[in-house]
Specification:
heterodimer, A: about 350 residues, alpha/beta, Rossmann fold, twelve-stranded mixed β-sheet, three-stranded mixed β-sheet, 8 helices, B: about 400 residues, Aldehyde Dehydrogenase, Chain A, domain 1, Aldehyde Dehydrogenase, Chain A, domain 2, 2 domains, seven-stranded mixed β-sheet, 15 helices, globular
Chain lengths: ~350, ~400
């Protein structure tokens, strides 16, 4: 598998990213006053010796504050994430940042998709891509991916029912050579795997790229290993790549290697798993809270973010690609206080 | 449409039977039959085994002792004479908060002591301490006058608007705890024209620490003060209306930094000693809250020595957060004298806990505030002690009606 973005060993990456990120953080500090005030209050002045010394922002801060390093009139797109509590992240992209993120996403995925656009099945409905100025996460995910394919089949109808006839027709036309399948993990399971299995469809030429977590599949005892095993055994689909990414670092995806089970960091990004008590980097094999680092954000201070996801680093420079390999284990629960507020919320909303 | 009877424990009750009819021998203000019952409950709550398991039940047991109840009645009667008489208001409907397990008892006990028929909604989300209290109440019924079981009810129902609407229409006083959202939600249901609400909206609370008073205190006294402050702050995850959100250091700015540093160091120790726990999710929550405040400006320095304590040094009182920022997040501002707080404090502000001040200084400050904010000024350690005067109300007084006779 040829790649030009999964090449750096950990020491090489540590050196290169540290310099680039120090520069980027300085840039944001000069151009994003709220960010500068945060660093000032943290007394962050010394030169960080390692990536782990770089100051991180909690990712949820993009839901509570506007953080942008470019003038409003240079913002060409505001990405929003959907939130369960009505909070949404707002990510401000200028022309350069928007171009970079899609180019780097293309290079990352090109590693597993190859250089040419493939016929594509999107396990979603076409209506999920809506307003082009302000995207939902599901829409943005689908829209970002749509560009990597051609002759698209949107598998679901307006009522989220899979169109089996259309899928059969797609496979009749394209199923004999490599094609791309994209979807959220639980939707791939519910709408593609089960349908393909029940109708005996052959997906052996497919390359599946999926994301979104395992929570919705946990009650069916489906984890990553089971997902891969059953798709392979029941549909022939074996080229499967889970990825981890977030709108707050748009364009950066941590991609599952061909061997399965581990996510890898592209050369312009890294992860640090932190101990949730000391907040120091946790040793390999010890779970903690995931911090994501990327050089892509240039129009907003999103280079170093503490996520609310739990993960574990499995190894460093010992896998299919160089660098750290890791897994996402789940989400931190949302903190709740006891307090006297919020009791009777009355009615059914 | 039915509700679950928690006290007296019993089968489900239909909403039509929810409000008990007046008893043959009506209850009076300070009725002995209620006094006896509350005293029996107090005794049970104060048994060491129970108080060890749920320390908050100890405070409640103390509050319900006969001597405490009589003191409240005396204060009420002091304002009465043979031409001004007090009687129960009738039916009181209580909507206490889900997450402070003892409030429903305080609210109810005072209304019962005033001789009212009571219906208390106990949240389905209430926790172990609430169950323990209900068990004590039910156990105490055996030796009580039957009028108690006939006039006092605690029920649990989900978010059923129809039940709330019915109780609202049928009561004479409605007591709504739980902050702005709860008050607004319950207020959608009309009361009878002569009925009234007693509401407990969102509040914020602070601490004041005298720089000179701290310096004059012994090391042991400082430790003791911080342990009490830690209790005030961490008991309800710093989210109770009385939990201090910020500390005002009052005195010489040049000496305040050292006082703050020592206070913060002792606070970390005290929080750990009392077994407080701040998990990863809460630690992240605190960063989100603190970084957000810093992004807005006016945070000159923030530190996160560990998950338990986060400190935000603020330039002026105006920068002090009234919102909850996560358990163990404390704003610090230095001011020269208490009077500098006057323009900052508002109606929403409830409790000011203090250390190192003269009582006369505090009374003088309260006079200067003139009731525009702050309902209670209490020592460190007393922030969460429920008192019959709460949020500016003398509750017993609110639960009676007055009849005047001009003969």
């Amino acid at each position: 598998m040829l790649t030009d973005v999964f090449t750096l060993t950990h020491p090489e990456k540590e050196e290169r990213l540290r310099g680039e990120l120090v520069e980027l953080l300085g840039h944001h500090r000069r151009h994003c006053p709220p960010y500068a005030r945060i660093l000032d209050a943290l007394d962050q002045d010394g030169e960080p010796a390692t990536l782990a010394d770089l100051p991180w922002l909690p990712v949820r801060l993009f839901k509570t504050r506007k953080l942008s390093s470019v003038p409003d009139d240079e913002v060409i797109r505001v990405l929003t994430s959907s939130g369960t509590t009505g909070e949404v992240s707002r990510i401000h992209l200028d022309r350069a940042a928007a171009a970079t993120q899609s180019r780097m996403l293309a290079r990352t995925l090109g590693t597993v998709l190859g250089p040419r656009r493939l016929p594509m099945v999107v396990v979603d409905r076409s209506g999920v891509v809506g307003d082009r100025r302000s995207y939902s996460a599901r829409g943005a995910g689908a829209l970002g991916m749509v560009n990597f394919g051609r002759d698209h089949l949107w598998l679901l109808d307006a009522d989220d029912r899979p169109d089996v006839a259309a899928l059969k027709e797609f496979l009749g036309r394209h199923g004999g050579s490599p094609f791309l399948v994209f979807g959220f993990t639980f939707m791939v399971w519910r709408y593609l795997y089960e349908v393909a299995r029940d109708h005996g469809l052959d997906l052996s030429q497919g390359i599946l790229v999926h994301s979104g977590g395992w929570k919705k599949l946990a009650d069916q005892a489906v984890d990553n290993a089971e997902f891969r095993r059953r798709l392979g055994a029941d549909t022939g689909l074996t080229r499967i790549h889970n990825f981890y990414g977030m709108v707050e670092q748009i364009g950066t995806v941590f991609l599952e290697g061909p061997e399965g089970g581990s996510l890898y960091c592209p050369d312009f990004a890294d992860v640090i798993v932190r101990d949730p008590v000391t907040w120091r980097e946790a040793p390999v094999g010890t779970p903690g809270v995931i911090e994501v680092l990327s050089t892509l954000p240039t129009s907003y201070p999103g280079n170093v973010l503490l996520t609310e996801d739990l993960g574990v680093v499995h190894g460093v420079d010992d896998g299919h690609w160089p660098g750290k390999r890791f897994s996402v284990l789940g989400r931190l629960p949302r903190a709740e206080a006891r307090g006297c507020s919020d009791t009777y919320v009355g009615g059914r909303s | 449409m039915t509700v679950r009877m928690r006290f007296p424990a019993g089968p489900e009750l239909s909403v039509d039977e929810l409000v008990p009819p007046p008893p043959a021998m009506p209850l009076a203000v300070g009725d002995e039959r209620i006094m006896d019952f509350l005293t029996a409950v107090s005794r049970r709550l104060l048994t060491p085994a129970l108080a060890r398991r749920h320390p908050e039940l100890g405070s409640l047991g103390f509050f319900l002792r006969r001597r405490e109840l009589l003191r409240g009645l005396e204060r009420l009667r002091a304002g009465l004479d043979e031409r001004l008489l007090a009687f129960p208001r009738g039916v009181v409907f209580h909507v206490p908060p889900a997450n402070v397990d003892t409030i429903f008892v305080y609210s109810w006990a005072l209304a019962a002591l005033a001789g009212n028929i009571n219906v208390v909604r106990v949240s389905p989300r209430s926790a172990a301490a609430a169950d323990a209290i209900l068990e004590v109440l039910n156990d105490s019924l055996a030796e009580a006058d039957p009028v108690v079981a006939r006039t006092q009810r605690m029920v649990t129902y989900g978010h059923d608007d129809a039940v709330t609407a019915r109780l609202s229409a049928d009561c004479d006083v409605r007591v709504i705890w739980g902050g702005d959202r709860a008050v607004t939600a319950v207020r959608r249901h009309p009361l009878a024209p002569a009925a009234r609400d007693l509401t407990f909206p969102d509040r914020s609370s602070f601490a004041v620490l005298s720089v000179a008073g701290w310096e004059a205190a012994t090391v042991a006294a400082r430790r003791d003060a911080v342990a009490k402050f830690a209790n005030d702050a961490y008991w309800f995850d710093q989210a109770a209306c009385s939990s201090p959100r910020a500390v005002f250091l009052v005195g010489d700015a040049a000496r305040a930094d050292a006082v703050r540093a020592e206070f913060v160091a002792l606070l970390g120790v005290a929080a750990r000693d009392r077994g407080s726990d701040v998990d990863a999710a809460m630690a992240v929550e605190k960063r989100v809250g603190s970084y957000g405040l810093a992004a807005d400006g006016e945070v000159s320095r923030m530190t996160f020595p560990d998950n338990l304590v986060a400190t935000l040094e603020l330039a002026t009182p105006a920068a002090v957060p009234r919102e909850w920022l996560g358990t163990g997040t404390f704003g610090f501002v230095t001011i020269a004298e208490l009077a500098e707080l006057v323009p900052f404090l508002r109606r929403r502000d409830q409790t000011l806990t203090h250390f190192g001040f003269d009582p006369a200084e505090l009374v003088g400050f309260a006079r200067e505030l003139g009731g525009r904010g702050i309902d209670r000024i209490v020592p460190f350690g007393a922030a969460l002690n429920f008192a019959p005067v709460w949020d500016g109300y003398d509750l017993l007084r609110e639960f009676v009606r007055l009849v005047s006779v001009d003969g």
